[in-house]
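Practice problem: predict the structure.
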Amino acid sequence: MTIIKTPEVTPLGGFSIASSDSPTMIETLKTRMEHGQTALFFANTNFIVKCQHLKETMNQPDTLIINDGIGLDIASWIVHRHSFIENLNGSDFLPQLFQSIQANARLFLVGAKPGIAARAAENLTKNHRITVVGARNGYDDMKDSKKLIQEINESKANIILVAMGNPYQEQWIINHRHDISASLLIGVGAFLDFLAGDKPRAPELIRRLRLEWFYRLCLEPSRLLKRYTIDIAVFLRLCLRQGKSLG
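Answer:
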C-alpha cells in the first residue's frame, strides 16, 4: 500500500492551504495521480473571499489547495508569523507540472470565452508539446453537462483544466468530479487566457517583484479595482477572524 504524503498546511480564511516548493508539489501530484483522483485549487485573495461557502467540501484529503500571490504571504505572516515556502501561482507552476509529466499527460480544457480554450490548446501542443485531447468553451459548450462529461471521459483525459473564475470553476469541479474519470482536475482561472495570448503576462521584472497583480489592475481597472481594494479588506478580515482554525 502506497502512503501518499500530505504537504504541511497553513490555515487561512478557513481553508487548509498547502505549503510546499514546486518540485515537492509536482511529485506529490504525480503520486496522487497514480493512486486516485485529486482536485487542485489555487488560493489567491479572491478565492478566499468568493469560495467561503465551499470550505467544508474543499478541506478534504482528496483536495489540494495551494497558495497563489503575495496576499496569501501577507496574511500568513499576520496570522502565523511565517510566509509560504514558495509562491505557487498557476501561470508559472502548471507549465512546470505539465513538463514533468509530458509523456503521460492528456489534457482536456474547459471554460473561458469562445475560441480561448482552442487557442490555448494550440499553444500547449505546439510550444509545450503537451497532448490536448479536447477543448470546450465556458458558454454554449457547457450548457449540457452530461454530454460534456461524456466527451471528457471518452477522450481518456487524465487532467482537466477548468477556467471559469472563482467560485464557479470550483463549484463545477466539486459538482461533477465524481462523474469524471480523470485523475486530476484543476481550477485555473485566467490561465487559458494567458496561454491563448488573450491576456498578457506582466514583464519578468514585475513578476519577480511580485507586482503582477498591479500590472493586471492597470490593464483592467474596471474589472479588478474592487478585487484589489474592498475585497482585500474582506480577505484580511476573514483571515483574522478565522485565525489558525479551519471551517
